[in-house]
Design goal:
Low-confidence stretches: none
Shape: globular
Order of helices and strands: HHHHEEHHHHHEEEEEEEHEEHHHHHHHHH
Number of helices: 19
Largest sheet: 7 strands, mixed
Structural class: alpha+beta
Radius of gyration: 24 Å
Mean pLDDT: 95
Number of strands: 11
Helix content: 55-70%
Distance between the termini: 45 Å
Length: about 575
């Protein structure tokens, strides 16, 4: 049975238009005042065509062929360059970028839906353009006029691709110990020397020019992260010379074989500072935060791909005289896949909408509040959606049985490809620490209070509809759990520096279930106004199953957060 993709366009439109009411918010922003769902729908339909007809057919072949280093240059799978050329000609890289720099100026929410489709169909290929928007935002915000004039439009339109060079063998999550050096020159440039590893798309044959955003240290840098500077290192210099960096190897990975993950040596490579000296992390975070949203969307894409193919197989595979989708064990598993995929789409799109409001709303108070909400949701989207992306692929493989363990049926590639998203762009454990320490405790819970007020309002709206009272009760129960758990961590953290670190993972998962309760409630209420009553009935039944069968999974996470006072024992030595 072929492994195919059909974009969930109806679900996407339902979330954008009926659950989040995005068009009403866009109408308040000058940049999107004329944007309507007709236009958005047309964009999504064309993106679905590109993803399913151009990217998905070359996914398995790209995985089998992989990348290769030939005469010092990286060659991607044979079909990748033509697909990327079509991507650029279609204007897809420029979708959310400003028209001032060759972009189309559409909201990030629309771009998020597109990226979900691209990741579902070909994660390895999508790794190349997936960093483009973060590179564009970083260069636009922190680049000099000269750098913007030289590179920004080409980055916005995808004619130039970008790579992010952070990691070194001794400096993964701990960027404070990186050692790559940058030596200032009389002409205002810098010469970068050092080695980086795990650089996605450091070199390839999709575009001629590639720009690396490299974290390094100036000679007068202080120790730790406060001494890090961000520089841009192009492959080709303005005078046409090849810059002095080289790919020293391509990693042989578990998955995303079509993505070139490179080790690079910089040998006095010419570069220019992006932002201020010693303030590189602040500039780089624009790129990293964009990447984290996109990584979460990779997890969502994998869920969608695995779920729809598992559903198709379960409908066709007959065992014990009936399709396996009728067996309770399989039905339970398939419902879990469907409900979590639908709910996590609501969360991911809500994060993208918050970014839109923070960037373009005319009211400063609305922008500030949206920025705080986006900050809270970003680590949740990255961690929860990627964790479920891998779990969904594993569950879907279970539906296929032994066939799923073979390459012929496709789901094993989804399983392999999805695993990396839990690791890169900040491991999921780091996302949990970021959520609890930096986004909740650091401001005394002010940002969380904004989010909880929004969720309380949804609970109130549901409580006004008798058929939705159970959703209101469940959501209010999770809100109460969140407040109680947060207070417990705040109290313990005042005298115990490790307290938040001990419970961060469970706190993130508890908060994820809080947002699951919200997504279920908001979706159920939106379904009341859906004209297609048969479609709405099916959705409502699935949502209620999620309420009854999935939401109870929150309990052990909140319980462990309340056990915050218990110190962790030491790990025993390896034997």
């Amino acid at each position: 049975m072929p492994y195919l993709y059909r974009a969930p366009l109806r679900e996407m439109r339902f979330v954008i238009e009926r659950v989040l009411h995005a068009p009403a918010l866009w109408a308040q922003c000058e940049a999107w005042v004329d944007l309507d769902m007709g236009t958005v729908g047309a964009v999504l339909e064309e993106a679905a065509r590109f993803a399913s007809e151009v990217l998905q057919p070359i996914n398995a072949a790209g995985d089998a062929q992989g990348c290769r280093l030939q005469d010092g240059s990286v060659r991607t799978p044979d079909a990748f360059p033509a697909a990327y050329k079509a991507f650029v000609e279609g204007g897809w890289p420029a979708l959310p970028c400003s028209p001032d720099w060759g972009g189309q100026g559409l909201p990030m929410l629309v771009d998020a839906a597109v990226r979900e489709m691209l990741s579902a169909c070909n994660h390895g290929w999508n790794m190349y353009p997936d960093l483009l928007h973060g590179a564009y935002e970083t260069l636009k915000a922190h680049g000099t006029d000269e750098l913007k004039s030289r590179y920004l439009e080409d980055v916005a339109t995808g004619r130039t691709l970008a790579a992010m060079a952070l990691t070194e063998p001794q400096a993964g999550s701990d960027l404070g110990v990186l050692t790559t050096k940058a030596q200032p020159q009389p002409d205002g440039t810098l010469r970068v020397s050092g080695s980086k590893i795990f650089i996605s798309g450091a070199d390839h044959d999709l575009t001629e020019q590639i720009v690396h955003f490299v974290l390094c240290r100036l000679p007068d840098a202080s120790p730790g992260t406060k001494g890090i500077t961000l520089v841009i290192v192009p492959k080709w210099l303005p005078d046409g010379r090849r810059n002095t960096w080289a790919v020293t190897g391509i990693e042989h990975k578990m998955g995303i074989h079509g993505s070139a993950t490179c080790a690079v040596s910089y040998d006095g490579a010419t570069s220019w500072i992006v932002g201020q000296p010693h303030c590189g992390l602040a500039a780089m975070f624009l790129m990293m935060n964009s990447a984290r949203l996109h990584v979460g969307l990779q997890g969502l894409g994998h869920q969608q791909m695995a779920t729809q193919n598992a559903l198709r197989h379960a409908a066709e595979r007959v065992q014990m005289k009936q399709p396996i989708q009728r067996h309770p064990a399989m039905r339970q598993l398939l419902l879990r896949l469907q409900v979590l995929t639908q709910a996590q789409r609501v969360l991911a799109y809500r994060a993208a909408l918050a970014i839109d409001v923070a960037a373009a709303h005319p009211d400063a108070g609305e922008r500030e509040a949206a920025q705080k909400i986006a900050g809270l949701l970003t680590p949740l989207v990255k961690a929860w959606l990627t964790q479920q992306g891998f779990a969904a692929a594993s569950d879907a493989l279970q539906v296929f049985g032994g066939y799923g363990y073979t390459r012929e049926y496709g789901v094993e590639q989804t399983l392999r490809d999805s695993r990396i998203a839990m690791v890169y762009e900040g491991t999921n454990e780091i996302q949990a620490i970021d959520l609890l320490q930096r986004k909740v405790l650091a401001d005394g819970g002010a940002a969380l209070a904004l989010l909880l007020a929004e969720l309380e309002a949804e609970a109130t709206r549901c409580a006004e509809v008798p058929a939705l009272q159970d959703y209101a009760d469940a959501l209010r129960g999770q809100i109460a759990q969140s407040r109680s758990a947060t207070a417990a961590v705040q109290a313990q953290a005042a005298s115990d520096a490790e307290a938040a670190l001990r419970v961060a993972d469970d706190y993130l998962m508890g908060t994820a279930h809080l947002l699951l309760a919200w997504a279920l409630a908001a979706s159920a209420r939106a379904a009341l106004d859906e004209p297609d009553r048969a479609w709405a009935h099916t959705k409502t039944e699935q949502l209620r199953h999620g309420l009854q069968a999935l939401l109870p999974d929150a309990a052990p996470h909140w319980l462990r957060v309340h056990a915050v006072a218990r110190p962790l024992p030491q790990v025993s030595p390896a034997t």
